[in-house]
Amino acid sequence: MLEGMHVSRISVRGFAVASATAVTTVGAVVGVASGNTQPSNDMEATAASGEGTLLADIPAGQQADVQTASLAQQADAQAAAADTAAQKSAEESARKQAAEDAVAKKEAAEKKIAEEKAAEKREAELKASRSEARADASDIATQSSYSIAETQAIARQMIPADQFQCFSNIVDHESGWNYKASNPSSGAYGLVQALPGSKMASAGSDWQTNPATQIKWGLNYMNDRYGSPCGAWDFWQANNWY
After folding, report:
1. CA-to-CA distance for 224 and 42, rounded, in angstroms?
2. What CA–CA distance (Å, rounded) separates 168 from 58?
3. If 0-12 CB within 10 Å is exposed, 13-18 middle and 19+ buried, where does residue 15 land?
4. Could you give the CA distance from residue 109 to residue 104 in angstroms, rounded to a whole number?
5. What pLDDT is recorded for position 88?
6. Residue 76: CB atoms within 10 Å
7. What is the pTM of this model?
8. What is the rounded distance in angstroms from the CA atom of residue 168 to the CA atom of residue 230?
């Protein structure tokens, strides 16, 4: 019996050494997964000597639980490492997106400022054009009648140079520069075919016979409704009326 028991102890110790080696290996893997690259001397010594807490010293019914716990620890370490890597990747992506958004916002703001400045410049130029010193209807000597050339010369004196051609285009289509042109069906009258013609009385009581009065009224109308004669001409081309 004693000899049999001795053999059994040796067998158990041999299994214990093998088991310890397995546990040491699992522990080493877990250590690497968790960032600890230094092997455990105690575990190595235990594995080599067969002493210490070995699977052989643990009741057989609990050995599987110990091995399962070791594997679970390894899985937890790997999962933690994966979570850390995922978090770093997400943070880097967020920083990159934030930088791109900042650049896009800056470009949009710069574009808006440039557009606003351009609009302000156009408005200033338009105001300067309107305020340009031009002759008024009252400055033009009246005549009993006017030729087309004389009527056009009056218009050149009253209308800003950069707006004259647009004004002339409209008058060409509306009346052919005939200040007495009348549309019997609609009641439109004069160079700019005011409808009704009596509207031009606001510019002067001689609206029926004085092209300067008609030009004054027409210019004011185009400025008020379309911003300028060129604005009125743009509308006319799209609609064939203004």
Report:
1. 97
2. 110
3. middle
4. 9
5. 87
6. 13
7. 0.49
8. 10
What is the C-alpha to C-alpha distance for residues 12 and 4, in angstroms, rounded to an integer?
A: 12
Asked whether the beta carbons of 30 and 73 are under 8 A apart, the reply is: yes
Asked whether the predicted pLDDT for residue 26 surpasses 80, the reply is: no
Lowest mean pLDDT among 25-34, 68-77, 193-202: 25-34
Does the CA dihedral 130-135-138-140 come out positive or negative?
negative
Q: CA-based angle 195:196:202, to the nearest 5?
A: 100
Token pair in block for residue 65: 């639980």
pLDDT, the chain, mean: 78
Contacts of 233 (CB under 8 A, 6+ apart): 166, 167, 169, 170, 242
Rounded CA gap, 125 and 90, in Å? 52
Q: Considering only residues 116 and 26, tell me which one the structure prediction assigns the higher pLDDT.
A: 116
Q: Per residue in 53-85, pLDDT tens?
A: 555 666 766 767 777 777 888 888 888 888 888
Task: Select from 189, 194, 188, 191 the least CA-distant residue to 221.
Answer: 194
Tens of pLDDT, residues 83-137 = 888 888 888 888 888 888 888 888 888 888 888 777 776 666 666 555 554 778 8
CB atoms within 10 A of CB 123: 11
